[in-house]
Amino acid sequence: MSRLGALGARLYRGEVGYDFIGKRKFWYALSILITITAIAGVMVRGLNMGIEFKGGAVFTIPSTSVSVTQARTDAQEASGHDAIVQKLGNGSMRIQVTELDTKQADSVRTQLAKDLNVNEADINADLVGPSWGATIANKAWTGLGIFMVLVVIYLAIAFEWRMAVAALIALIHDLTITVGVYALVGFEVTPGTVIGLLTILGYSLYDTVVVFDSLKEGSNGITKQTRWTYSEIANRSINSTLVRSINTTVVALLPVAGLLFIGGGFLGAGMLNDISLSLFVGLAAGAYSSIFIATPLVADLKERDPQIKALKKRVLAKRASAAAKGESAEGPSDDAADAADADDAEGGPEDVVPGAPAPAAAVAGQRGRGGRGRPSGSGRRR
């Protein structure tokens, strides 16, 4: 077994673990700082909306010896607006200029033919009206709203309303960070970006639901025991699924990183940046939020429940009593501790947490009881 596999097995059995819930205030503060930075980026720099949303013209120039920088300068001088120039694979160029009507596009096309030394008839011009972009944006917002509502309803039915609220906050967190990164790096926002955003929402939920499912199983009948608090069960759930979350996130990020850094950066296919950046940032943010945001929020909300509050008091009182007895007796012997654990395990469902590994002492005690006088199938004692 690999080291990562061995670590995952130990995390699942509860032999090792990181206190995610205990350090949740630090992660909350870090998330708030990142979110504020993202919002500030959107407010200060704004989003570089693509031509599909603002309207304008796209000119496809045949193969030419003019550099991208020179073509951008010529397009800006001819149109009076900012221009985006992309080098295509066959040596041609794609020049995108926003806020142009039909007459302006014709004059810009004529001027570009002169400046770039190409035949005007060979320049293909496509016009995009701003009304079409507004329609696309409205449909995207509508789809996002419907998606959020359905997610909350489903999670509230499948799990509980606290988990639905925590998942919704985590989704908003992921969206805000992704949009903020777009504003800070200045990448163009296109319909491909919207598709990428909707895609990462599904992945973020997938990772969150995996942890929630483990938490639901581990907390089933939690008020009937006095070993663990709800926050401790939540922390065990995160640790038991941690390696799985890391593995799925890394496997998903590798091909997306290839699109972003190799396809969009090294090979110069700039159009891949539209969707690959949103996928890359969103996948990383989704994995982060499912571990450090969603589950700790569920624990915080659940700890407000009167039954869970009472459980926490009983657990802490039992631990304080055990500690006091240990101090007064100068520490129980190993045999006494094992017997106490075995008796605790015999107490029935009030001391057993479903989904949590049984203590070794309890298992040993059960084996010891099973070896005394239990008849075998042949009628002889073992």
Largest sheet entry = 4 strands, antiparallel
| Percent helix | 55-70%
Point out poorly predicted stretches. Answer: 327-382
Strand content: 5-15%
Rg measurement, Å: 30 Å
The number of E-state strands comes to 6
Spatial order of the strands forming the largest sheet: 3-4-2-5
Write the element-wise H/E pattern from the N-terminal end onward: HHEHEHEEHEHHEHHHHHHH
Keywords for this structure?
14 helices; about 375 residues; two-stranded parallel sheet
Plain-language structure description:
With 382 residues, this protein is an alpha+beta fold. 68% of the residues lie in helices and 7% in strands. The protein contains 14 helices and six strands. The strands form two sheets. The chain has a four-stranded antiparallel β-sheet. A two-stranded parallel ribbon has the order 1-6. α7 (161-185) packs antiparallel against α8 (191-218). The two termini are 36 Å apart. Residues 327-382 have low confidence and may be disordered.
List the helices and strands and how they pair.
Layout: H1 3-13, H2 24-45, E1 48-49, H3 51-54, E2 56-61, H4 68-79, E3 83-87, E4 93-98, H5 102-115, E5 124-128, H6 130-158, H7 161-185, E6 188-189, H8 191-218, H9 230-240, H10 242-266, H11 273-302, H12 306-328, H13 334-346, H14 360-370
Parallel strand pairs: 1-6
Antiparallel strand pairs: 2-4, 2-5, 3-4
Helix pairs in contact: 1-9, 2-7, 4-5, 6-7, 6-8, 7-8, 7-11, 8-9, 8-11, 9-11, 10-11, 13-14
